[in-house]
Amino acid sequence: MQETAVENPYGLGALIANGDIIARSILLILLIMSLLTWFIMITKFFDQRRHRLQAIEAEREFWDSTSLTDAISKLKGNSNPFRALAETGKQAVEYHEINKSRLSGAIGTSEWITESLQRTADAVISRMQAGLPVLASVGATAPFVGLLGTVIGIYHALIAIGVAGQASIDKVAGPVGEALIMTAMGLAVAVPAVLGYNWLIRRNKVLIDRVRNFAADLEALLTGNGRGAARAVRSA
Question: Is the whole model's pTM more than 0.90, yes or no?
Answer without folding.
Answer: no
